[in-house]
Amino acid sequence: xxYCDEDIIEVIITQQQIAARIAQLAQQIAADYRxxxxxxxxxxxxxxxxxxxxMRQLDRPCEVDFLDASSYGNGTVxxxxxxxxxxxxxxxxxxxxxxxxxIVDSGRTVSELVRLLQGHQPASVKVCTLLDKPARREMPVExxxxxxxxxxxxxxxxxxxxxxxxxxxxxVAVLDEDAVVPKPRTSE
Length: 188
Prior knowledge:
Layout lengths: L7 E6 L1 H18 L5 E7 L3 H10 L5 E8 L12 E4 L9 E9 L3 H11 L5 E9 L12 E5 L5 E2 L15 E4 L1 H4 L8
Parallel strand pairs: 2-3, 2-5, 5-6, 6-7
Antiparallel strand pairs: 1-9, 3-4, 8-9
């Protein structure tokens, strides 16, 4: 599906706003984990852009690993089930873990990931998300670092996708679901 300007309703977070906020988050994280063995766990696929920019701003060493988890599939609404398709390669025992998410919506994925990671015996597990969408929360979650709080609309860009498209946009925008989501036919 090619990207079209008419698919985007509104840019809600610019590239410059994202860069400035990531610099602030990196300073806070570096200070909070100054004397700790930090492991960043990226949640694929959406977090890879955010994780990459964030870790380059950290002025301290850290390890990086990835999990692949999803509750959206190719839709615009969470399916309510969390699927883990790629597990960790690093040992987390005794290390401080920071889960890096692109967006926290229903809370189901983050809740399940934190539960799973606690089974690896880390010293701590916290969550950092670029976007928080509390209006859609179904499950309580504790978020230690939040880039931006956004409304309940479906967004794309900066790693976030719709059916694997729009990840390359350098900003976060509201997607016109009517333009990209086929509507069911009605019988006449």
